[in-house]
Amino acid sequence: MYLYNNFETWAQPQKPPFNIKFWAFSPLIRKVPKGVVLVIGLFNYPLTSAISFVGGAIAAGNACVLKMSELVPHVSALVTELFPEYLDQDLFRVVNGAVPETTALLDLRWDHIIFTGSPAVGKIVSAAAAKHLTPTTLELGGKNPVFCDPKMDPYVTARRLV
């Protein structure tokens, strides 16, 4: 809903800050879609990440291919079933599979690639993107830090975190 409610505001052209060198040109920043975006989904938050990244790509006016993680077959099946019901199949696709399918997707030319996951796989994704000079968004690390209040029961906290 956040994307839907704010889209028109974000899409408006913007005037950059005043700069004496360019004032006579009346510069304007126009936001245009990149094209076709590849989103490589992660396994630990598969639905949340898929919806947020694909939603962002759609809000920016792009077509999108979502490659779901092979480690979450039930979520992948659900997304594969539901996406075609609500999204135009000419603009949005879901791809399932493992390493061979991801490798085949990375061999293709994309306008942008979004990947969330481990640094090791991030290196593979960025190397494949570099072959075509494809811009990438990489969210690497896999760390989920937690701050605990000293008053918390450590056994209950540990059980809930695990």
Entry keywords:
5 strands; 41% helix; 162 residues; Aldehyde Dehydrogenase, Chain A, domain 1; alpha/beta
Description:
This protein has 162 residues and is α/β, with parallel strands linked by helices. The protein is built from 6 helices and 5 strands. A 5-stranded parallel sheet has the order 3-2-1-4-5, with helices on both faces. The mean pLDDT is 89. GO terms for molecular function: aldehyde dehydrogenase (NAD+) activity. Residues 25-156 form the Aldehyde dehydrogenase domain.
Overall pLDDT level: 89
Terminal Cα separation, in Å?
Answer: 31 Å
The overall number of domains is 1
- Biggest β-sheet: strands ordered side by side in the sheet: 3-2-1-4-5
CATH class category label: Alpha Beta
Beta fraction of the residues? 15-25%
Give, in order, the helices and strands: HEHEHEHEHEH
Based on CA atoms alone, the radius of gyration comes out at 20 Å
- At the third CATH level, what is the topology name? Aldehyde Dehydrogenase, Chain A, domain 1
Second rung of CATH, namely the architecture: 3-Layer(aba) Sandwich
Biggest β-sheet, characterized? 5 strands, parallel
Q: Given the structure, what is the number of helices? A: 6
Can you tell me the CATH superfamily? Aldehyde Dehydrogenase, Chain A, domain 1
* Structural category: alpha/beta
Number of strands: 5
Active site: 139
Organism: Tulasnella calospora MUT 4182
GO molecular function, one term: aldehyde dehydrogenase (NAD+) activity
Pfam families: Aldedh (PF00171)
